[in-house]
Amino acid sequence: MSIQQDVVAVAELARAASHGLALATRAAKDVALEAMAGSLLAHEAEILAANREDVTRAEDGGAPPNIVDRLRLTPDRVAGMAQGLRDVAGLPDPVGEVVRGSTLANGLELRQVRVPFGVVGMIYEARPNVTADAAGICLKSGNAVLLRGSSSARSSNAAIVAELREAIEAAGLDPDVVQLVPGDGHDSVKALMRARGHVDVLIPRGGAGLIRSVVEESTVPVIETGVGNCHVYVDRAADLDKALAIVLNAKTHRTSVCNAAESLLVHADLVETFVPRVVAALQEAGVTVHGDQAFQAHDGVVAATDDDHAAEYLSLDISAAVVPDLDAAIAHIRRFSSQHTEAIVTEDVAAARRFAAAVDSAAVLVNASTRFTDGGEFGFGAEIGISTQKLHARGPMGLPEMTSTKYVVTGDGHVR
Amino acid sequence: MSIQQDVVAVAELARAASHGLALATRAAKDVALEAMAGSLLAHEAEILAANREDVTRAEDGGAPPNIVDRLRLTPDRVAGMAQGLRDVAGLPDPVGEVVRGSTLANGLELRQVRVPFGVVGMIYEARPNVTADAAGICLKSGNAVLLRGSSSARSSNAAIVAELREAIEAAGLDPDVVQLVPGDGHDSVKALMRARGHVDVLIPRGGAGLIRSVVEESTVPVIETGVGNCHVYVDRAADLDKALAIVLNAKTHRTSVCNAAESLLVHADLVETFVPRVVAALQEAGVTVHGDQAFQAHDGVVAATDDDHAAEYLSLDISAAVVPDLDAAIAHIRRFSSQHTEAIVTEDVAAARRFAAAVDSAAVLVNASTRFTDGGEFGFGAEIGISTQKLHARGPMGLPEMTSTKYVVTGDGHVR
Q: Do A411 and B365 touch (CB under 8 A)?
């Protein structure tokens, strides 16, 4: 069999299993999630042993330390995966939620109800915890899932999935609701992307390159996640203490995440009052400022190019520019933003209102750090990723975003 | 300039115009919609003259009468387009609707708000009324629209769009929110499908071939509409009078539409009581029944193939099969349905509940004709199409389905 046939074959097993899962009660799904958590904890030793194979292979292959760190599991991280599954068990079931309903003039009863997608494909990088997270979120939302993690994490993923499947089966559900995609190479990713009709939606999680290639090559519908060139705009009417705290938090709280700030815009009236303070504070925190001419007046600021203004650094770097007014800030954001998250710092209601209305990003923050764009922070309890597209879901995606809907219409012999 | 550059150029004009439209008040948009309606009525003569060019060209080219009929405008049809625009003016503005909102534990105020997509592309066949409908729905939902109708309707579409743009400008909005896609050939359709980043969403409206080609070739996100192989399942516990009325209505009320029934399934217990009645009634109404062996026992029933069971006839034909039980009906539907609309006729609550839960279609009807799956019938007031995909929108798409959302989060210097 070709790899395409192999992938379609597991997708068809997933499809068959998804029919039962779609009708499973919340209680049955929560029992399975608890069993999955228990199984990971009970088999921690096997999972860590499998993970050591991946880590050794990565180290032998000369992978950089940050990649090896993402790949490495510890007892704490296994416990974290188990806790994540239990947290999902504690969340409401999105399936069956009535989104809207009415009785039509002719007496027909109309209900729009949440239903699972069916079969979800996940493509992700070398973070074995995503395997358990995605399995739990998909199971709770009634979706079968095909997992295609990085081949560098293949031993870890195989061990985790084996434990999860055993627990699912013991809990009385069909284990084929959680499966690994066969194959290690790019051909197996490609086969998943071409399985239109067999897979209902693909969710890539990872770097910009991975996401771009899935968006461009996939014939299966894709939910695009995560690239963030997030801006903080410090308005003329900003409280400068709040502005300083927000810029520092957004840039330095955690640099490797998509909701970290990568670009700073400052109103021209603040060139003397705020620019020196923010440059000094950023440099103090170890940040390299890539600035325009106004910023370059300060020692240590390096010249910014358009590539800098467009960059998602994911490091202790920030691009910075002075803008003549609010509209110029909005225009700069329109030109360079990845439409993930932008923040304004201002005490001026009109400026805040205009910024929130005119900036077309998944999240717009007023007087708050960009780091708040997050499913956990938004109170969603679990997050499969942050969508930066406009169709279906935009922003942090929780359980409801992992569903479609259908209309159920009940009559009594109604005809037109 | 290449056709791709031409298309990107109009898309960029649309983008620029969309920024203002996104911020326009409902009042400003309704004034424009009323002006658009008035302009079509005031220039009926010019529009009909342009349409005569298209009709003559189609007739000279030997187009079949039903195609010419779809293409032809009359004073009544122009009045219908104008009324459609006024109806849209009467509908609530989806932009700015707060979908959900909460105050987080840390005091951050979270609101998820409806916003326009930005730039919408419409690809459709030779129905000039779609030009006005789509322009109205897009304008009200705050979206700029690029219209690519059939080249056979080019004179009509050009005349309609010219009148609409004049009215939009007179009403104080940027006329570039409604534009025709340049070019007549497939290369211009292709250019629109490849304008990723310039066009936010493409909506094809038309036959199965058109929709399939857009779904497969487009790199712009697509909302798939309309192919309907709709089933009516007559359960063992059906009221047979209701069943007969529903089957006849679903099949014969209007055959050329996507919510017409194309497939009939009957429970085995009804082979003697219902099958003869429904065959006679369908044949009386001029319908050719393509049946399985049980149906072929009746005069005039022709043998059904798998292709028949999968067909969207859009004509006075129906496929028909007897199934041993409810689960067999569900399995048949899973195999052959296009997941648009399926109906069950039954007085048995458990059967209705199971059918509604297990059938994964955009609409599931209990004791009602498939013909009710329609934006107008559902009370949405305007419909841009019926989505048969699972992402973003499923079923009849009204104004809210023509929007995305964003999160607006307001704090007071909040950091993590």
A: yes
Share of chain A above pLDDT 90, in %: 90
**Partners of residue A344 in chain B, C-beta under 8 Å:** none
Instruction: Convert the pLDDT of each residue in B329-382 to its tens digit.
Output: 999 999 999 999 999 999 999 999 999 999 999 999 999 999 999 999 999 988
Instruction: Provide the pLDDT for residue A211.
Output: 84
Q: What's the complex ipTM?
A: 0.94
Q: What is the mean pLDDT of residues A16-38?
A: 98
Tally C-beta pairs within 8 A across A and B: 208
First vs last Cα of chain A: how many Å apart? 50
C-alpha to C-alpha distance for B211 and B338, rounded to whole angstroms: 13
CATH number for the domain running over B3-224+393-410: 3.40.605.10
* Three-class HEC string of chain B: CCHHHHHHHHHHHHHHHHHHHHHCCHHHHHHHHHHHHHHHHHCHHHHHHHHHHHHHHHHHCCCCHHHHHHHCCCHHHHHHHHHHHHHHHCCCCCCCCEEEEEECCCCCEEEEEEEECCEEEEEECCCHHHHHHHHHHHHHCCCEEEEECCHHHHHHHHHHHHHHHHHHHHCCCCHHHEEECCCCCHHHHHHHHCCECCECEEEEECCHHHHHHHHHHCCCCECCECCCCEEEEECCCCCHHHHHHHHHHHHHCCCCCCCCEEEEEEEHHHCCCCHHHHHHHHHHCCCEEEECHHHHCCCCCEECCHHHHHCCCCCCEEEEEEECCHHHHHHHHHHHCCCCEEEEECCCHHHHHHHHHHCCCCEEEEEECHHHCCCCCCCCCCCCEEECCCCCCCEEECCHHHEEEEEEEEEEEECC
Q: Which pLDDT does position B34 carry in this prediction?
A: 98
> What is the C-alpha separation between A210 and B125, in angstroms, rounded?
36
- Closest CB from B367, B371, B411 relative to A412: B367
Confidence of residue A126 (pLDDT cuts 50, 70, 90): confident
Chain A nearest CA to B156, separation (Å)? 31
Nearest to B21 by CA among B158, B171, B163: B171
Is this model's pTM higher than 0.90 or not? Answer: yes
Fold of A230-372: Aldehyde Dehydrogenase; Chain A, domain 2 (3.40.309)
Order the strands of the B302-303 sheet from edge to edge: A98-103, A109-116, A403-414, B363-368, B341-345, B230-234, B261-267, B317-323, B288-291, B302-303
Would you give the end-to-end CA distance of chain B in angstroms? 50
Q: Which of A361, A392, A416 lies closest to B406 in CB terms?
A: A361
Instruction: List the beta bridge partners of residue B363.
Output: A407, B341
CB contact under 8 Å between B395 and A407, yes or no, is yes
Domain range annotation of chain B: 3-224+393-410, 230-372
Is B206's pLDDT higher than 90? Answer: no
B374/B380 Cα distance (integer angstroms): 9
Residue with tokens 């359960």: B235
Contact A338, A312 (CB under 8 A): yes
Q: What is the DSSP letter of A298?
A: S
CB contact under 8 A, A221 and B117: no
How many CA within 13 A on the CB side of residue A21?
36
Please write the tens of the pLDDT for every residue from A222-279: 998 878 999 999 999 999 999 999 999 999 999 988 999 999 999 999 999 999 999 9
